[in-house]
# Entry
Amino acid sequence: MITFNILKRSKRSQARLGVISTPHGDIETPSFVPVATRASIRTLDSSEVADAGSQVLICNTYHLHLAPGEKTIKKAGSLHKFMHWDRPIMTDSGGFQVFSLGFGRDHGMGKILKEETARRIELGSEPKAVKIMENGVSFRSPIDGTELFLGPKESIRIQESLGTDIMLAFDECPSPIADENYMRSSLEKTHRWAKMCLDVKKTKQALYGIVQGGAFKHLRIESAKVISALPFDGFAIGGEFGYDKKTFGKVLSTTNKELPENKPRHVLGVGHPEDFPIIAKAGGDTFDCIAPTHYARRGTLFTSQGRLDIARRDMMKDQKPIDPKCKCDVCKNYSRGYVSHLLRAKDQTGMKLATMHNLFFFNKLAADIRKKIGNGEL
# Structure
């Protein structure tokens, strides 16, 4: 189980400073949660992830079920022991893969659109590669093509076997271009599945309910009211939030106002540096994003002066640290030129150093947000 203590509430916004206590340690909130999809942060070992200031990780139920399988992990003692991580772990439910392997793949888009489009998914539409049914979702394994069924019962069973601190209820993550009728039907399914997850849960692991509804304000409010009325230990807010940062903040703020004050709130799949203050001011406590690790492996580093394309040829002659204001070990010991050289040479060490810096930068940014809330500045 977990407990959540609010240490301070902002007088300027919905921001709050808190601590989520879990069987594997405390999480100071607001907190950034790195994404360890297959039980790892690529190129780093668990001690390096911790040294970068990471308090908690989120792993992927769907992918861990495919390989190595929850039975293998349970035999190792737990996901914590399997990956040698002694701090808190969250697991998503596999609900995001309903979208990413379905309509997301069909339309070549992520859950958050960069610009508005006239395309719409109407009620009755079905994705090509997955089959969404009343009791769950049928997938095809990308490993050997065998059929895989995942529903509320199956998702909770897998997550219980993994032994993580915080589990997420199985939901349908809808496409950002779903029309209101489709979104309504999807929402009702997610609400039914939420109750099923609670009914089948057997362990003392914490379980978060997921609020959906897209950018439709009335559906977000409805979903928040339905999910918050159920005995979840916390709440996660999923799906898309509109086409711009202003809309994102409004949708998140509106949703959080309907959720209980005394339970933690997690924002799923959002967390670029510019999002941190928006999430905090809207009342978010934890939030996950692939940005620091995904961008690092492609040569984009986050700095106090903005993004830096470290793989550019001219960077090889630059002997300055990646970010003169950063206190990570990479910035203390290596130059832009060295990291650029390694990345251009496709050397794994370059990806490792880039990832270490980005992860440190994101965790420090979250720490700065906590400090601002504590000082009454946010």
